[in-house]
Target: Transporter
Amino acid sequence: MDLLSSAYFVLFLIVAIGFIVGNIKIKGISLDVSAVIFVALVFGHFGVSIPKDIQNIGLTLFIFTIGIQAGPGFFESFKKNGRELIVLAFILVGSASLVTILLALIFKIDTDIAIGLLTGSLTSTPGLAAAIESTQSAMASIGYGIAYPFGVIGVILFVRMYPKLFKVDIEKEAQKLEDEAQQNFPELFNKNFVVENENIVGRSIAELKIRSMTQANISRIMHNGESIVPTPNTILESGDIVKLIGTEQALERAKMIIGEETGEKIPLSREYVVESVLVTNKQVVNKTIGQLNVLANYNARITRIRRAGIDMVASSKSEIRFGDKLVVACGTANINNVRHLFGNDSKKLSDTDFFPIATGIVLGVLVGKLKISFSDEFTFSLGLTGGVLMVALVLSRIGKTGPILWTMSGSANQLLRQLGLLMFLAVVGTSAGAHLVKTFQESGLALFAIGIAITLLPMILTTLIGHFVLKMNILNLLGALTGSMTSTPGLAAVDGMSDSSAQSIAYATVYPIAMVFLIVCVQILSML
Model:
């Protein structure tokens, strides 16, 4: 057919059929978007091809958006609390790479196919992208296609069986983590107190240093029946009612300094408003509340910050991030000025600025071209995949350079990432399809068995170390395990076992580490 020689028609036909196949579930398990590569393999077997330029465009979009999303988590994961999780990621990916090398040598498997088996066993599409780019061969995608199905199913079965084998109570472990989390991110409350302590009467808020003494924020004060926005120069008088926001412990300390708690409310006057303001103004991003000086300039007080679903008590040292929601107590005369300062434009969250995307990809391509020579025989470069990924990680961490924001809204990131992934899988699959049947006939069953070994052996080793040596909570362990395997279906299986978010946090912590480390391992293996 003439239509099958049309690149754009074939591309979207493969994507459409791939989504149909990917949505088919067998006992709750589906291939999801990865079904596209299997459909593309079939098309490629019958001689259909798509230009490689489409593959490279898809690759850069996919890798760049992953780096932008994973950047903050990647660098945060190096903090103390994430060290154990990071160790597990290195153990799993490192042991998987070693198993791949050993089995490839024992069974005399082509290096390109072996690398594909590694990425398929760990269900890593970025790893496959790195493999294709490093080996300059479509053979890696054949190994990926053979190993990937058990890579998906094996992780799901493993995480489901693990709690039963070790007789661990999931809900009990979840409660332990929740108790620990309450200490790190305690819930915020607001209470009213009557000024009764004679030692503070007639003194200003600045003199009393209530914020530093209690770690609670004064939201507003009622003086002689009138609600006012507190300033550092506000004098506390006997009988004033003070509203504070903070943790239970902070409010207890405030009670000792100010006086007894009261159930009397502080009504909002017509000249006073408490409002949630959205940060969408690029000019204030990365600045602290103290630098913005909203209290002196607008007689407004920021009492709390909501970021990524977590409420935090605001202080003068708190940095503002794009997309934060600020609870602002302010006079009605100044509220419009405060809104203008922070932006408060929800539409900007969904807008996509393509200049940072294009610039970031250009920088990534240039970095990937740089070569480091260790000797005449060994030269290392990040390549297209590694260069784009590392630049995206760094830019995401920086967040803002002058007027340029290196971040994207979740919806924009997801759309571009999905588009890039689909383009990449469709082209890679059709390129590899011509070799698929011959390779599988020659060594398909052996390759499938090797893929099973690369999936299971590292998981078993990592789990034993996490359970018996590091003595990790099972939800953290399973989250780290699925993150190290870059297995979203595996994470979904763990999520179905508990309402806790601990496994998702662990997954997000190790995923960027495992992804980057696997790409490095792939590039090293391609040199052997």
